[in-house]
Each structure stands twice: as structure tokens, then as C-alpha cells.
Specification:
The complex is a heterotrimer. Helices cover 30% and strands 23% of the residues of chain A. In chain A, the strands form three sheets. Chain A has a seven-stranded mixed sheet. A five-stranded mixed sheet of chain A has the order 1-2-7-5-6, with helices on one face. In chain A, strands 3-4 form a two-stranded antiparallel ribbon. In chain A, strand 5, helix 4 and strand 6 form a beta-alpha-beta unit. In chain A, helix 3 runs parallel beside helix 4 and helix 6 packs antiparallel against helix 9. The two termini of chain A are 29 Å apart. Chain B is an alpha/beta fold. Chain B has three domains: 138 residues, Rossmann fold; 146 residues, Rossmann fold; 51 residues, no CATH class. In chain B, the strands form three sheets. Chain B has a five-stranded parallel sheet with strand order 2-1-7-8-9. A four-stranded parallel sheet of chain B has the order 4-3-5-6, with helices on both faces. The N terminus of chain B is likely disordered. Chain C is an alpha+beta fold. Chain C has two domains: 50 residues, SH3 type barrels (Roll); 42 residues. Chain C has a five-stranded antiparallel sheet. About 9% of the residues of chain C have low confidence. The chains are: A alpha+beta, B alpha/beta, C alpha+beta. At the A-C interface, helix 8 of A face strand 3 of C.
């Protein structure tokens, strides 16, 4: 087929663009702006309003919070799909417990009352593998001090599903709720550890990159770590978010936009493991865009930042915690990176980050 | 325990000392003082230069009167629509199209490969040409490697095409581009005010720096080959403004750790054994004589264009958007216009839904300006 | 346009080298490199292929090239100011390191 023919048709120019059917694409699932738009415009639209919820769907936070007589009932739900289902540092079972426990924790609800587990599995999935998934879920529950209280199981035909999907829902009580929108100018931005570990480990496994050494997902429940931070300076943690899909870049943007502040972070202070830094460089990826599954970003009142940092560092999962930046009253909604060479805006990823050659 | 490098080695090899960077920037400032004009324009022809400039925030540190224009240095951006169409048609026809991640969102006449995948096409992202071969080894289906990139990347494609035990179900759809010819086009574009070129260090690692000698003679402007670390770029820019100050049309190499005058002769031999240079359209720029790399006749059996009757007719129901006629990518890549001069910029043309080449890739000027804000006051 | 990453060769087997990229190791093909490489050599990797052996002395050469460029462009008050700043910054960094 020659190019000439299509060029000619185009030159004749008569054809209108056929209106393409709007369909869901992978970009809608990547945790960035496209996904937020899909949720806001379609999936979260039209539900009856008016329930006396302090934090509901319209807040687009990590979960919902329902006021009780004494405190809050926090609810969150998350479906977990990951390919491959087992990856360096974890598997879908560990991910499904950690993800939901962490979403609760991000609202300040660090002691889960109970979790549900709904599993959809493909015909042909090895029972031994299912036992491994179950055992990982158990281990993660023990680490979190949580347990599964009810569940559901469905099996679908071969090829109708890619292996296994797990949905978990979590409920917890909280005396006070922390939002992702509570930052004020002057607040310090604290990261609980190195960034990019989960996404890079997964990508290496997914694209058969055979990186030898050092890469493992950070997937873990961090509710106990978060509790230490909250107790170190009561009321001083003004906002929290776990930088999962879309990475630190999306999480910081969302926090800046919802809070009405600008955020400046310093590249030199951001903890990145040498292995992740190198792998990201080889693949042409920005660690800011890469998913984490065992980390949190905290906005902390300036005078309490050191105390919160010390509390985080006292826990093994917070050993690399660092104060990486602060909130400003200018550049509202923007995230600025000071590279040491100059300053630039941090971009949000569009779709799932992919290895680049250039 | 594996032996690992000391942190000092990393710093040494990475050339990322902000203090030295400030000294280099100050030196550039001083040379600009000596030149005395309120604007000096240079062009780099390498998306990775732009990427580094953006990633490290160098533009905010460089003197305003030094205009560093991004030229046609992104092979992904300049991949023409009909080339994407061919890959899309193959993917929708049940072939496994393996390609670099950069290519997924590049718009074709009807759709990008990402959209083709959403509609059931088979697309696999690979990091290396070797991975595409491995894919073919693991299946009976036809695997087509949609190969993009400049000569640096084409060398890797050449290496796998020359493999002795290449699987029979593997073929190559080449969208490789060759950069020296397009520099001629840009240098001759009417209205261009480019006074010097920063040439791409990794492409020159293959071709050698001497390849630019004739260009310099013909056009009377200097070319500096530069690397990609922040210090490499600043050192390259410093050398370039010095040559401009001295009125010296010469080739200089500030990336000697990777680039020699003659280049990598083994790689060149592989490259030209497998590919020939032929003319073709570069999206948004022009027809570039000898700008495309296509497989030679000896490799017709591996050439997807000859192996398959690629049928583009199913895509003909879709005409390209008429917005393209308002797109000024060509002028932007020639350095005579800025993204903000374009009516579509930030309105109809956005990173998620790009119209022109410059909004397509991470390296595109428009995309970078859209995301980083050109010269934002931060 | 081409992403290139330097690394250090750990071992070589035929046309494939195991390369340490400062934290991760990865196999890199040697088909198109123009010099023999062995353990300890630096190479430049692009899309899984080594395209250049980087002699250690060339790294030093690049650094001295920067120094030379700076010297050529320097020699006045401004450059001296900058050198002063460099020294001050280095001193501060040393103090910081000492505190930590």
C-alpha cells in the first residue's frame, strides 16, 4: 500500500471525520486527569445528594466519612487488578489489603474495624496460587492489625478475565478526619519514604526488563506508621494522601488544587533509592510519575514538622522519611520543583507511564 | 555482594554539580555581554536536550537573551501520519505490533496505536529491539516491530535484523529518521534566525562529529556537539556562544567522552548494510530528502511493507482533522514561531488530544511549554 | 533525542554484557560497539545496546574541558565572584556533611 493513495484522498479533502464512539481507554484508569474527569463527569454524577455526610463522593477524597455521635465512620473501597499478579516485593493479595488499609489511614482512620474481600477469579487459575494470594492477604492483615470479616467469590470463564481481581472494602472509626485538602501556606510537605518503588518494580517485571538487584515494590500497610505521625503532634497533620497511581506528581497536584496553595519541593531532598533512580533513567521515566503502595505524603504545620519527622523515622517503614518542601500562597494549584539548577513545574502523567527511548 | 560504584563515581559520571552549573551560566552571560546584542538564537536538534533542559529547570537559569530553540529533534513527533496508519492497520489486522512506548499516542489519520489497542488491535510496548524478537520467538503470530528513532536507535534495529537465527514471523516497519539532512532544511528555512546549532551527542556517537563539517562550510554557522547532563548542555551552549562571538563557523565537540570525529564505525557499517536513506515527509516540517531510513532490498523478507499488503482503506472513513491546517508546528520547529503564536495551542491542541507534532511527544516544544509554561516565573 | 545511560560492565559473555547502572544491573548487547569491552569498562547504553565504550580518561577529559571553558571565559571580577561562591558553597556543604 502506498502512502500516495491516502495523501490523495486527504488532498481531495471531502471526508468529514467520522464521529468516533466514545469509549473507555486505559488512560482513564491511570489515575491522572482523565480518570478524575471520568469519575466526576460520569461515574459519580447523578447520585442523590443530601445525605448528611461530611465527606462524600463530591470530595473525591480517599474515602468517605460519616459523622457519628462521637467521631466518624470512615469507609473506603478499592478494586485491585495488577499484571503480573505476583511481582518483586508482593502480590495482588498483599496489595488488596494494603491499598484499602492505607486509604482508610489517609483519612485518619488507622484502626480498621474490618475489611471485606470480593474475589473474581479466572477458570484455570492454579489453586496453589490462590493459596499464595490468600496467605499474602493474611500476612498483610497481621501487619495492619486488621482482618477480613466477610467476602464473596465469583469464577469467570477462561479468557473472560486476566487471572484475578480482588475488591476490598474497609471500615474504621476515627476521632477526627484528615482530608487531602487541608494544606495552608507555610505547611511542610513530608514524604514517609522513597518514591517510585512499586511502579518501577512492576514495570520491570511487566516489560521483562530483568533488572538485577534492588528493585522491589514497597507495597505495605502503613496505618501504624501514620498513627505515629498523627500522635506526634495532634492536629498538626493537616492533609494526607497516598501517592498511588499517578505517583507523587498527581497526589501533590490534587492536594495543591483542593487546598488552594502552591507547593514547592526540592529535588535533592526527595528520597529515591539508587536502583529506582537508575531504572527510571534507563526507561526514561520520572519517579514523580510512578506509583507507590506503601507511602504517604503529609502536609504538616511548620512548627510540628520535625516532631512528625522524628516519629515517622522511629518506625522501620518511615526510616527514609524526609521533609521535602513547603506550601506557598502563590502559584495556587501548581507544584514546583527546585532542581538545584533551576525551577520547573512538575507535570502530571498522562496515562500509564511507558518506557521511552527518547 | 556485587561490587557497586561509589557515590562519587556516580556524580563524576553524571555531571550534575549545581555549583559548576552556576559558574557555566555566569560564563555564558559574560560571553553574551561581549556579543552585546539583546537576542542570540541557537537551536538544538535533539529532544533529549529539551528533556534535560526542562527536567533540570535549566531554562529558568539561562539568560533570557539567549534563545534556545528546539528544532526537529524528536523522531516520534516527526513520524508522519501515513507511517502511523500503517502500524495501526497492521495492529487492527491481527498482527502483533511491537513498538517503543513513545509511539503509542502519536496521532495517525484515524487513530493512534493506543486507540487501535482500545479497539481491539494488538500492540505491545518494548524497550529494546531484542525484546521484539523475543516476543516473536514466543508466538506463532506475526510480530511487526514498528521501529522509530534516529540513527542511534536504527543501529539497534539493524543489529536484530542481522541476527542469524531471526524467527520467521518477525518483520520490521521502519519509521527511522536520519538527522543530518533535516538540519540543512531548517538552516535554509526562510525567516530562520538560528546562529548556531547544538548537535545531538548520542546520534553523533554513531555518526561522528566530522559529519557536520560540510554543513558548517555550506551555511557558515557553528555546530557544537553536546551531551545531555546539565553540565554537558551548559558547556555546549557556552562553547556555541563563544564561536558565535568569534564569528567562527566551526564544529566543536564538547562531548568527547562519547563522540569522536569519525564516530562508531562498526555501528555505521551495520546501519548502512541494513538501511538506505530515502526521501520522505517529516510531520509538520517538509519533505526531507534522505531523511527516512528504509530497509534495503536484501532485507525485503523482513520488511513489513513488502511482506504484507498493508490495507489502509478501513481507515479512510476518517479524514484527518481540518485543525491540522491551522497547525504551525513547522514554524515552531524551524524556530520562527513560539507555541503561543499558534491559535490552537492550549485550546484545541492539548497533550491528551494533540493536533500537531509538537504536542505529541514528551519532547515536543508545545507539550513542554504547555506543561512547564515556557519561561515561567517560579 | 536518544536516551543514553552510562554504566559499568560487570561481566561479558559473548555479545552480551551485564552492566551496572549505578543501582540496577541489566544485560546490554555488544553487537554494535566498536571496541572490545571487559569488566570495569564504562559503556553508553541506548535501548539495550552499548553504543560506545567510555574510556575513564575521557571522563576526566570532559571535566578538565569544563575547567578550561570556564578559565577561557573567566578571568574577570564576575567569574572570580562565582568561584568565591563555589568555594563558599563547598565549605557550607562540607559543614553540613560534618554535622550529619
Amino acid at each position: 500500500m502506498s502512502h500516495a493513495s491516502i495523501e490523495t484522498r486527504r488532498a481531495n479533502g471531502a471526508m468529514p471525520r467520522r464521529p468516533q464512539e466514545r469509549i473507555v481507554t486505559l488512560m482513564h484508569g491511570a489515575g491522572g486527569r482523565a480518570m478524575r474527569a471520568l469519575v466526576q463527569d460520569t461515574l459519580a454524577a447523578g447520585f442523590p445528594a443530601g445525605a448528611p455526610w461530611a465527606v462524600g463522593l463530591e470530595a473525591m477524597d480517599d474515602g468517605a466519612a460519616i459523622p457519628l455521635a462521637d467521631g466518624w465512620l470512615v469507609v473506603t473501597t478499592d478494586s485491585h487488578v495488577v499484571h503480573p499478579w505476583e511481582f518483586p516485593g508482593g502480590d495482588i493479595g498483599r496489595l488488596s489489603i494494603s491499598g484499602t488499609v492505607n486509604d482508610l489511614a489517609m483519612m485518619g482512620a488507622t484502626e480498621p474495624l474490618g475489611l471485606t474481600s470480593a474475589i473474581v477469579v479466572e477458570e484455570g487459575f492454579a489453586l496453589a496460587d490462590l493459596e499464595r494470594v490468600q496467605s499474602s492477604m493474611t500476612t498483610a492483615c497481621l501487619e495492619a492489625g486488621a482482618t477480613v470479616v466477610t467476602g464473596d467469590t465469583k469464577v469467570m470463564g477462561r479468557g473472560e478475565l486476566d487471572g484475578i481481581v480482588i475488591n476490598t472494602t474497609g471500615v474504621a472509626l476515627a476521632r477526627s478526619v484528615v482530608r487531602d485538602s487541608g494544606l495552608v501556606p507555610g505547611d511542610r510537605i513530608v514524604m514517609t519514604g522513597t518514591i517510585g518503588d512499586h511502579g518501577i518494580a512492576l514495570m520491570a517485571a511487566r516489560h521483562g526488563l530483568d533488572f538485577d538487584g534492588g528493585l522491589a515494590s514497597d507495597v505495605a500497610p502503613i496505618n501504624r506508621l501514620v498513627r505515629l505521625a498523627l500522635d506526634a503532634a495532634p492536629g498538626a497533620v493537616r492533609a494526607m494522601k497516598d501517592p498511588t497511581r499517578g505517583g507523587v506528581a498527581s497526589a501533590l497536584h490534587e492536594m495543591a488544587e483542593k487546598s488552594g496553595v502552591g507547593i514547592v519541593v526540592e529535588a535533592e531532598r526527595i528520597p529515591v533509592s539508587p536502583a529506582v533512580r537508575s531504572a527510571a533513567e534507563i526507561l526514561g521515566l520520572d519517579p514523580f510519575h510512578i506509583a507507590n503502595e506503601g507511602k504517604a505524603i503529609l502536609g504538616v504545620a511548620a512548627q510540628a514538622a520535625d516532631a512528625v519527622l522524628a516519629a515517622l523515622r522511629s518506625h522501620p517503614r518511615g526510616a527514609d522519611a524526609a521533609i521535602v518542601g513547603e506550601c506557598i500562597d502563590r502559584q495556587v494549584g501548581r507544584v514546583i520543583l527546585d532542581t538545584g539548577f533551576g525551577r520547573r513545574l512538575v507535570t502530571e502523567p498522562e496515562g500509564e507511564p511507558l518506557p521511552r527511548i527518547c | 555482594m556485587p561490587e557497586t560504584l561509589a557515590r562519587d563515581d556516580v556524580h563524576e559520571l553524571k555531571f550534575r554539580d549545581p555549583v559548576k552549573a552556576r559558574a557555566l551560566t555566569a560564563a555564558i552571560e559574560r560571553v553574551l555581554d561581549e556579543i552585546g546584542r539583546d537576542r542570540v538564537s541557537v537551536m538544538h536538534v535533539c529532544g533529549s536536550h529539551e528533556q534535560s533542559i526542562a527536567k533540570f529547570g535549566l531554562r529558568s537559569a539561562l539568560p533570557r537573551r539567549l534563545s534556545v530553540i528546539m528544532g526537529p529533534g524528536c523522531p516520534v513527533c516527526v513520524t508522519d501520519m501515513p507511517e502511523v496508519d500503517e502500524a495501526v492497520a497492521l495492529a487492527l489486522d491481527g498482527k502483533v505490533v511491537a513498538t517503543y512506548g513513545d509511539m503509542l499516542k502519536v496521532p495517525g489519520t484515524a487513530m493512534s496505536l493506543a486507540e487501535a489497542e482500545a479497539q481491539g488491535g494488538r500492540v505491545e510496548v518494548v524497550y529494546s529491539a531484542s525484546q521484539a524478537i523475543d516476543l516473536a520467538r514466543g508466538t506463532d503470530d506475526e510480530v511487526v516491530f514498528f521501529a522509530s528513532g534516529f540513527e542511534t536507535t536504527a543501529v539497534a534495529t539493524a543489529a536484530v535484523v542481522l541476527e542469524e537465527d531471526m524467527p520467521a514471523n518477525f518483520s520490521v516497519l521502519s519509521a527511522h529518521k536520519y538527522i543530518p539532512p533535516v538540519m540543512e532544511i531548517v538552516a535554509e528555512m526562510p525567516g530562520t534566525n538560528v546562529e548556531g546549532f547544538l548537535a545531538a551527542g548520542h546520534a553523533a556517537t554513531i555518526t561522528g562529529s566530522a559529519i557536520f563539517e560540510r554543513f558548517v562550510e555550506r551555511h557558515g554557522i557553528p555546530v557544537v556537539v553536546a551531551g545531555f547532563e546539565p553540565l554537558d548542555i551548559l558547556a555546549g551552549l557556552l562553547k556555541l556562544v563563544e564561536l558565535i562571538r568569534d564569528g567562527s563557523a566551526a564544529v566543536a565537540n564538547t562531548f568527547p567522552r562519547c563522540v569522536t570525529a569519525e564516530g562508531n564505525l562498526v555501528a555505521q557499517e551495520r546501519l548502512w548494510r541494513v538501511f538506505r536513506a530515502t526521501g520522505g515527509n517529516w510531520r509538520g516540517i517538509a519533505h526531507v530528502p534522505n531523511g527516512n531510513l528504509r530497509l534495503r532490498d536484501e532485507f525485503a523478507g523482513v520488511d513489513a511493507r513488502r511482506r504484507f499488503a498493508i490495507d489502509l482503506t478501513p481507515l479512510w472513513g476518517h479524514a484527518p482533522t481540518t485543525l491540522l491546517q491551522s497547525c504551525i508546528c513547522g514554524d515552531i520547529m524551524a524556530g520562527v514561531a513560539a507555541p503561543t503564536d499558534c491559535d490552537l495551542f492550549g485550546k484545541e491542541c492539548l497533550p491528551g488530544n494533540p493536533v500537531g507534532a509538537c504536542m505529541v511527544s514528551n519532547e515536543g516544544t508545545c507539550k513542554i511549554w504547555h506543561q512547564y509554561g515556557g519561561h515561567p516565573e517560579l | 533525542m536518544c536516551l543514553g545511560v552510562p554504566g559499568k560492565v560487570v561481566s561479558v559473555e559473548g555479545q552480551v554484557a551485564l552492566v551496572d547502572f549505578f543501582g540496577v544491573r541489566r544485560e546490554t548487547r555488544l553487537d554494535v560497539i566498536d571496541e572490545p569491552v571487559g569488566p570495569g569498562d564504562y559503556v553508553l547504553n541506548h535501548v539495550g545496546f552499548a553504543i560506545r565504550k567510555i574510556p575513564a580518561e575521557d571522563i576526566r577529559e570532559t571535566l578538565s574541558l569544563y575547567e578550561l571553558l570556564l578559565r577561557e571565559a573567566g578571568g574577570d571580577m564576575m567569574a572570580d565572584d562565582v568561584r568565591g561562591e563555589i568555594e563558599a558553597a563547598r565549605g557550607a556543604a562540607r559543614q553540613e556533611a560534618a554535622r550529619a
